[in-house]
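Following up on my earlier thread - several people asked me to post the actual chain instead of describing it. Fair enough. Here it is, all 71 residues.
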Amino acid sequence: MNDYFKEERSASLTFWAMGHMAKGMGLALAFCLALGLLYAVIWGVGQLLPEQSKQMPSPYGQITTSLPFVA
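Reply from S.P.:
Thanks for posting it. Predicted structure:
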């Protein structure tokens, strides 16, 4: 066996662990980019909507109206 780098077991274990951490970092990056892309698509669709749809009254208007106080 030609071991040109004289790699020991601890060095091999270190590279294995670093490889798994790099893989996890890549998966986390892909997940964050997918969330950002989803947010951008939703924002883009919102920009295509007419201006009147953005000025509608709040759907919570009936909840916030003043009700007679009952003691």
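The chain has a mean pLDDT of 83. That should answer part of your original question.
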